[in-house]
Amino acid sequence: MIQIIYILLCSTFVLACSSEQQECANQLYSFEFEVFGKVQGVYFRKFTQLKAQELNLVGWVLNTKKGTVLGIAQGRRTNELKEWLKNIGSPKSIIKKAEFKNDKIIDELEYDQFDIIK
Question: Does this entry carry the keyword Kinase (predicted)?
Fold first, then answer.
């Protein structure tokens, strides 16, 4: 698998990290997600918001008409939220799959907080 290496100058050190292995401490990331399964009516959006806040992430989450949960997350610890969305979710949820797209490094956050859109 091809890995993209990002290099950051941190003080007098060069910090190199792979986007697939770990996140660089000072880098901001953004991704979109959609979670499939029993994810509506089980407080999935609320638990996603709480997890995002715990990780100091911003963005939003909403229920779709097709029964999925859709959202955007931005910040430094996005890989931790991805793992949570894929494998944990809210206590009564049953996650069949989680899809991620538009993974990118950003210069600044586009949101002030992590919102639930109704």
Answer: no
